[in-house]
Amino acid sequence: MAHAIMGSLPSGLSARGVIKLDDTDLLASRPEQTRARWGRTIAILPQEPWLALDPTMRIEGQVGEVHRYLHGLGSAEANKSMRDDLTEVGLGDRTQAYPHELSGGMCQRAAIAVTHAAGASLLIADEPTKGLDAALRDGVVERLREEVDQGRLLLTITHDIDVAAALGGMIGVMLDGALVEFGPAAEVLANPRHDYARALIGANPARWPIPAVPPAGGPIVTATGLSKRFGGKTLFDGFDIAVGRGEIVAIVGPSGCGKTTIGNILLGLVKADRGEVHRTTGIAPTRFQKLYQDPPAAFAPHQTLRQSLGDLLKLHGLAWAQAHASMQRFGLGQELLDRRPSEVSGGELQRFAILRTLLLDPVFLFADEATSRLDPVSQQEVFKILVEAVRERGLGLLMVTHEAALSERVASRILKLPD
Fold this sequence. Notes:
The chain is α/β, with parallel strands linked by helices and 419 residues long. The protein has 16 helices and 15 strands. The chain has helices spanning 2-6, 31-37, 49-52, 59-70, 75-88, 104-118, 134-149, 161-167, 185-190, 195-202, 259-267, 305-315, 320-329, 346-358, 376-393, 404-410; strands spanning 20-21, 24-25, 42-45, 122-126, 153-157, 170-175, 178-184, 219-230, 233-244, 248-252, 274-279, 288-291, 364-368, 396-400, 413-416. The model has no long low-confidence stretch (mean pLDDT 89).
């Protein structure tokens, strides 16, 4: 729906009907008229911020060029506006960083700064708070409300019930492409009429039952004395961690404090400045796996999901019957296999990533905000499957999350990193 409004639907999809903005039918516009609105009249804050940011440009340049080229400001004035924008989203000290030097949450805030700088009359925010801790989430919500107070229209797509409640206004609940409920936010959230709307609210992690925690088995991964500096900042120093068989360990902390870096060090994807990491010997490296915060990072963009999944099955001698059974369990239709990663939703792509990883029968899984793309109902279902894998297979699960309620309901142990 958001891309239909923008006029940026992927190939193979088309929109019918009428979409009016200021008495203009957007669907009746010529391509050059549609492109002329981008950034000026309509701006979108995408769900995957790292896809919206230029990997070859520093953050300061990406915000600054909006002020220079879109608004025609001089260099000094544009730089001042850029610094103000980045400071307001908590990135005043990271203006010279490249996107790959920022955490997922920081990239999200950088994308918010770029979108705000555009000053469009209609702002479409697609999951603007995913991957952010509570304090930053509340800050983003406040910033979005300020956009409305300044006279802009705001269309927000979110799975976070708390965000929907805080933003207020009108709220719609969609299921299978249909709007099943619509009305004032306070009314819909307090007295939902549709079964799916009630299920969404009831699936909030804060309402999950607290499961019994069985004792952990022997350690699969152990690290001692880990230290890491990045971008002139010490992320952690002298950090110890161990994850045992059949154990779920959660790492929590503010955005950018080094949670993802710890998991990457345990997998050997990043080297620590100091410290030692020991993994159980005699186990194939492919059984130490990662679920990425941004699912497009785990898929070849030009391959269909059928090709991607087929390559994995062939390489590891697995049968399509196993994949089809897992797809059914994850609520993924067979028709999705013939689409590319950009042609499915972020939630569907993340479920494919989880499915693909579990097919490899991992002994250790690093889940980096693995369900941040999912609605509460899907999140609960996916964590049920992950917890079953932990209990039945003896999988060791290290999870990074900003959701305190989620870690309290799922994890055996919780490790907190300071800011």
